[in-house]
Structures are given as C-alpha cells and as structure tokens.
Amino acid sequence: MTTETASKPAVKKVGMIQALNMALHEAMSKDDSVIVIGEDVADPEEGGIVGVTKGLSTAYGDLRCRSTPISEQAIVGAAIGAAIMGMKPIAEIMLMNFTTVAMDMIVNHAAKLRFMSGGQTNVPLVIRTATGAGLSVGGQHADYYEAWFAHTPGIKVVMASTPADAYGLLLSAIDDPDPVIFVENTLLYFTQGEPPEPGKRIPLGLAKVVKPGSDVTLVCYGSHVAPSLAAAGKLEADGISVEVIDLRTISPWDKKTVLASVAKTGRAVITHEAVKPFGVGAEISSVIHEELFDQLKGPVQRVGAPYCPVPYSKPLEVAFMQGADAIEAAVRKTLQARAVA
Amino acid sequence: MNSAPTPDRAILVDMYRKMTTIKQNDEKSRAIILSGKIPMVYYSPRGQECIPAAVSVNLTPEDNICTIYRGTHDMIAKGVPLKDLWAELAGRATGTCKGKGGPMHITHPASGVLVTTGIVGSSLPIANGVALASQIRGDKRVAVAYFGDAASNIGAFHEALNMAAVWKLPVIFVCQNNLYGEHTKYEKTTAARQIADRGAAYSMPGIRVDGNDPIAMYNVAKTAIDRARAGEGPTLIEAMTFRFYGHVFGDADKYMDPGEKKAAMAADPVPRYRQWLIDNGHITAGELETMEQQIDAELTEAIEAAIAAPWPEVSELRKDVFAEEIAA
Q: Complex ipTM, two decimals?
C-alpha cells in the first residue's frame, strides 16, 4: 500500500478556506448576477475575517463584492431584495450567532416569500455563516442553530465536512432557486483535503456514505464527520462494522439514504455538535422509529452537546464538545440494547 | 392645495382616480367584512389615500414598491388589478398569490408590488436590495419603501437608512405618519420632533410634507424619485396623514381623542381634492361621477368574482415552499 501511494505523484491538498474561495470565484466568474455582501468581505477590508472572500472585489469589482456596515438585518434584507430581482446574492453573516440579529429577515421573509406570493417571487439567496466550539470564544460566537432553520419551512441548510464537498455544495447552494444557509465550521477552516474537481456540483439533499458498514448506521455532518470516522475505525478493530453517513444537507435531509442504511443495519446513532435536546438528531431518530420500528434491533441513540451555552473555560469546553469517545460509546450502546420482540 | 407647481391635468385626474378607488375599496372592504362574506384581518388605509396616489404617478410600471400590512392603498395606487387583489383577500385560488398570502402579504410583481410585509419596519431593508439590483445593473429603476411612523423606532429602519445612504441606493423611504403606532400616540414613543429629522442622521434629505395635499405630496415625491433615478441617493419623506378607522378594523378607538379623529375626518383628503379639481376647472362633477360609478362597478364585479372563485387545492400546501414541490 505504501509503495503504491509513494509511486503516485503527490496530489496537492486544498484547504477549506481555499476551496470556499475557489467556489466563489467559479460562481462569480461564470455569472454576473452572483454578488457577495457582508462585513469586511471586500479586499480593502482583507477579504473576510479568515479570507474566504479574498480577491473577489478585485476580480469582479466593488459593485459585486462589497463590505457592509455591521447591520445584519440590512445585509440580509438587501440580499433578499436583490434576490427577488433575479440576482444571486451571497450574504456573509460572519458568525452564526449573528444570524439571530437578522432572524426576521431570514425567517419571516427569505423563507416565506415564495410561498406567500404563490410562487411569483423567489429568493435565490445564500447566507454563508461560520460557527463552532473549540476556540474558547464563549457563549455568543460558537452556537449551532441548524435545527432552528431546519424547523422553518422554506430554508435549506447545508454543512460540509471536507473542502471538496464545501466547494461542490456551495456551488449548488448558489445555483439553488431557494434560500440556503451554508454553515461553515471554524475549526474545519484549518483542515485540508482532496482538491475539488473544477465546476463540479454536489446536489443538495444528497447524503454521502463515507464508510460502508453492516452493524450500525452512524449519521453525522460537519464537524462530527471526522470523529465519527475515528470512532468507526476503533470499533472496526473490535469487529463492529459501522456505516458512516455524512448528511451534507441538513434540510431537506436525505431520508432515502439514511433509511436504506438503517433498514440494512437495524441500528442507528445520530451525532452532531449542536446541543442534543430538540436537535436534528431528534428529528432523524423519530423518522427512523416511524418508518422502521419493526426492523430496529435497538433504540436509536443520539450524541450532542449538553444542554448549556458554549462555555469558555477550556476543561468545560472540552467536556461540552462531544467527540469520538462519546460517539463510540453511543454505538456500543445500540449493540447492547435489545428491542422488545 | 396651494403648493406650486401643479402637474398636468392628466396626472391630476389620475391621482384622483387612484384616491377614489382606494376610498371606495375601503368602503367595500368594511362592508364586506361586516356582512361576513369575506372575513379578513383589515388595516384600513382610509384617510391616507393621497400619499401612494401622488407617489405612484411619479413611478414607471417597472419601478417597484415594498409595503406593509396597512397597504391596500399602496397596492391599488401601484396598479394591482382589483380582481386579483379581491380574490386574494377572499383566499381564493385566483388571487394574486393563489390565496397563500392574504391581506398582509399581497404580492404582484407584474405591477411592481414585490413584497407586502406584516412585520413593522421590514419593508425598508428589502427595498434596499431591490434598489441594489438596479444600481448594479444600471437600469434606472427606483424602489419605494412604505412604512408607518412607528416603524421609525425599530432597528431595521436605522440599518436600512444608513446602508442606503452609504451606498447611494435608488430608494425612497416614504413614511406615512398617521400619528399612532398601533394604539399609542407618536409623542409617547418617538424622541424625534419629527421623523423627517432622522434623515439628517444618515446624511440624506428628510422632508416633511402634508401627505393629504396631493400637489404638495406630488412635488415632494417627484423630487425624491428624480433624485434616486439620477443616482443621487435616497430620500426620507415624512408624509403627515391620519387613519380614520383605527389600527385594525374593529378596534374601539378609545385610545384616540374623539375630537382629533372628528377633525381629521372633516378634512377628508378625497372629497377635498375632488372639490379642488372641480373648482379649478380640471374636470367636471359629471365626469367625476361617471368615473366613480365605473370604479364602483369594477369593484363590485371584482368582489362578486372573488366570492364565486374556487378555493385553492389542499395540494398547494406542498407547492411554493421550495421551487420543487414537496413529495406527498
């Protein structure tokens, strides 16, 4: 194995920030209606706090890529209005906690205008936003609200776990005729992966089986894909075969792939970084029970953060963040449990 | 009605046509609600007819507006077909929005009504975006955001005015100041002496005008719209007016000084303008009667058609959530 890889020419890895930037360049260079607005996104302001939008204002002009005031309602409102007029705006809301300031625009307007207008208007808008615990930023810079948005009819929610997926999913989000919340994980910004194929879209609503297996289905997304794979690897050593599914799109989620897998394995665990109660895991678990109750070999397990705000102090933050150990324990629990015959 | 200059006769008559259509539409709305034939939540714009009439005669069919739940006057003035409007109010499949929006969410892009919001202040940030698209494309269209006086106390107003000014967007902010935010009087809620003053905070013209004076309103709107179209940036207009039927139709008005309301109704802008048109020889009483009868007939037909129209299919619940229909 080592000899074979060594003989191949080294593939240049691509970082998450670079992949996102490549997708934005791809979209803006091909379609004049794609615009980018948000705090600090233009080059004089350094192309975003981590540089995802670097080079866009220089390449496509400051009409199409502009830094905004710190006014989240005005940012999303402007993106909605431009989207109704046929533009394809990408609004950057720096951190997911800041989307709360624009909730009226997102929930009452972006999500509902197509329905309330009887299909006369649509809002082909992407809101890029970053979040995630692990950087000791405390309670207002690291929350996950994907369950809030998934609970709002009319919004799609996407979370990528690798640079290539981020590239392909962001392009699909930009193409999509409906509003998409595109969630980026702050720790994953600093990861690398296989380079994306130029222009290649990954369809929204399609999960990916990242590791096939036969004993337990493990559903994850975003920052929990890597620890899920780590847990699966460890369990494999004990002869437990785990099928790992990266949802990639949270809403609408790929029921078909998940249910087909659980029908095969009879056991399921759902894991996410967001707090466990009322989370995405609860919805998926419910659907599994509704659809496959007779085929389950044990109750579905969930992994999520404890019910508290993201803490600051390092030992607290470490305890808050559920990783490979928690996921592994949840998988083992599904194997111990026996369904009532 | 003493402000110069006076627009052409055709514009003067068009403004009246819009104003009387709104007035008659309001009368029919209140009657049909009381009859029980079309039960709907209704925020009467009676008394505020002149403002959108004077704004709309300065707009092209390609210009757009974003308005609010008290907005039937804005929609009618911009040209939403009465038949489509009434079918929507009645919740019918033939309505502007297939019955899925209702009175607070009338949308009719074909006549330039892009958004009607039920959330105070939310018309402004979205109108900015509509104007942003025009600015990027250089298509010379303008966007109007209508809102009430109370909306000037919500954050969205301030964020939107600031962004519009910084970006010099082709947008006109038209505040219809009817002196009450829901049940509470202006002075109790608003620190600004007048809302027009708030324009200065965002380096844009802030103009207060008698919104019940068609000529004055016309001239202020024209200046602001011309300025936006020329790329010179936004204007805040504070159009002074009064609502005759409270916040929501059916409220008891007990928060209102009866004398204040009586005086406002005595100065009803619609008959006042009607008389002015006749007195100044722009049109005869006979011609106006014919016009009013035609409008009455058109409204009656629209309402009857709405009541006779089919309800939407339940399958509509799965449509227009996303572009792609949701599986049953």
A: 0.97
